[in-house]
């Protein structure tokens, strides 16, 4: 079984500032992958960034980067130069790979509000 | 050229009715999923199909019956709808069942049971 915990239900950041969203996970699998998804008010689930657990280098995608601490089972998302369009729910997710079945387990989400 | 599409986007119905939600993906993926997002925004997997074969069934009541006529389609039929079934249902697909492949989500179907 795997669990994903997001301890910040809501966060707020001013435009152009940097914000970090926290995520911890627990899995008994050695092969797994971590994801951050964004859900704006439109309801669409959009992949923000992903990280393979076997890679030590932190993933980056433009203004989005992660701080992956494998030993601590921590996977935080940093958003630099925040924009109004970043306002959304952000979900951390873990996907293990075990033989023929794997599934995506989501955290409870962090609602991010970007203000002027 | 929508990658994963769902119909309808909104569904309002009475308790006890039977309803279906359709999902189609044009990405050529082998694996499709149904997720339920409750009123607190918690997303949980319900089913996973790979090449029309059921792979994951997450202790969902048997009132929910997924059907995959081909690997591009995964429909969800719900019998005897209950108030607690009100939620947003997301369909998703990925190239294969395992690995780091990203899951691509449909726009969601908001089901309201009155």
Runs of chain B in which pLDDT lies below 50 for 5 or more consecutive residues are none
Percent range for β-strand residues of chain B: over 45%
Secondary structure category of chain A = mainly beta
Give me the secondary-structure category of chain B.
Answer: mainly beta
Rg measurement of chain B, Å: 13 Å
* Alpha plus pi helix count of chain B: 0
User: What is the number of beta strands of chain B?
Assistant: 11
Described by strand count, sense and barrel closure, the largest sheet of chain A is: 6 strands, mixed
Shape of chain A: globular
Shape of chain B: globular
Outline the low-pLDDT stretches of chain A: none
Distance from first to last alpha carbon of chain A: 41 Å
Number of strands of chain A: 12
Straight-line N-to-C gap of chain B: 34 Å
**Helical residue percent band of chain A:** under 10%
Range of strand content of chain A: over 45%
Overall average residue pLDDT of chain A: 92
Oligomer: heterodimer
Strand and helix order of chain B: EEEEEEEEEEE
How would you describe what is shown here?
- The complex is a heterodimer of chains A (116) and B (114).
- Chain A has 116 residues and is mainly β.
- Chain A has strands spanning 2-5, 10-14, 19-21, 24-27, 32-39, 46-52, 60-61, 64-69, 74-79, 88-96, 104-106, 110-115.
- Helices cover 0% and strands 54% of the residues of chain A.
- In chain A, the strands form 3 sheets. In chain A, strands 2, 5, 6, 10, 11 and 12 form a 6-stranded mixed β-sheet that branches. A 4-stranded antiparallel β-sheet of chain A has the order 3-9-8-7, with no helix packed on it.
- Chain A is globular, with a radius of gyration of 14 Å.
- Chain B contains no helices and 11 strands.
- Chain B has strands at 4-7, 10-13, 19-25, 31-37, 43-50, 53-57, 64-70, 73-78, 87-94, 104-105, 109-113.
- In chain B, strands 2, 4, 5, 6, 9, 10 and 11 form a 7-stranded mixed β-sheet that branches.
- Chain B is globular.
- Chain B starts with a strand and ends with a strand.
- The chains are: A mainly beta (116), B mainly beta (114).
- The interface between A and B is medium-sized, with 27 and 25 residues.
